[in-house]
Amino acid sequence: MNPAADEDRSDPERDASRVTGADAGDDGSTARDDATAAPVEPAIPPAGESLEDFRDRWLRAEAELQNFRRRAQRELEQVRRDSEEAVLLEIIRVLDDLERAQAARDPATAPDGWSQGVALVTQTVRDYLVRMGVESVDPTGTRFDPRFHEAILEVDAPPGIAPGMVAQVALRGYRRGERALRPARVLVTREPAGSER
């Protein structure tokens, strides 16, 4: 016999002993065993459960999945809206600073180019807010509405003005649709002291 030919033939027992830890499973099985394993059979309902029970459980699981998807979509929209509103509030603060800069400028010392530049930037910011659906709220003379107004002080109502009305706006408010981005800070009228009802 030819010894070289004997080496070419593989010995199954010797090959199995050469299997490394990466090739063997936890139970000692090899990848070759997995390939010859029988396919997994579909689950058979346990005794006492009918096909109708399985169908009912499947429908419930499907409904729960749809509810989860709807809830996740609502939460995603809420996070997006909250993020947009946080950025818009920062832009509103910048607009407040620009308006204060314009109001504080001294026409005698401020160059015309500077004044025009600040006015142009201020108008650009206002236009952007309008495009984003943000509108300013000036509630002077309207009834106090806690959804859109923040009372910082109560003042005696002048004659002919009912209590609970907005007498003056200390800081302009902004809203987006029916939601207040920043409530207007206002002075609210009250019944004058010593007056009889």
UniProtKB/TrEMBL annotation:
Which superkingdom does the taxonomy of this entry point to?
A: Bacteria
Extract the InterPro entries matched here: GrpE (IPR000740), GrpE_CC (IPR013805), GrpE_head (IPR009012)
Look up keyword Methyltransferase and say if it applies: no
Q: Which CDD domains match?
A: GrpE
- Report what the protein is called: Protein GrpE
Q: Which gene encodes it?
A: grpE
Cellular component annotations (GO), alphabetically ordered: cytoplasm
The entry sums up its family as follows: Belongs to the GrpE family.
Q: Name one Pfam family in it.
A: GrpE
What SUPFAM superfamilies does the annotation carry?
A: Coiled-coil domain of nucleotide exchange factor GrpE, Head domain of nucleotide exchange factor GrpE
Is the Lipoprotein keyword given for this protein? no
Q: How does it assemble?
A: Homodimer.
Q: Which residues form a coiled coil?
A: 51-89
Q: What does this protein do?
A: Participates actively in the response to hyperosmotic and heat shock by preventing the aggregation of stress-denatured proteins, in association with DnaK and GrpE. It is the nucleotide exchange factor for DnaK and may function as a thermosensor. Unfolded proteins bind initially to DnaJ; upon interaction with the DnaJ-bound protein, DnaK hydrolyzes its bound ATP, resulting in the formation of a stable complex. GrpE releases ADP from DnaK; ATP binding to DnaK triggers the release of the substrate protein, thus completing the reaction cycle.
Keywords attached to this Swiss-Prot or TrEMBL record, sorted alphabetically, are: Chaperone, Coiled coil, Cytoplasm, Stress response
Task: Tell me which species this is from.
Answer: Eiseniibacteriota bacterium
Places the protein is found: Cytoplasm
Region: Disordered, residue numbers: 1-51
Q: Name one GO biological process term.
A: protein folding
A Gene Ontology molecular function term for this protein is:
unfolded protein binding
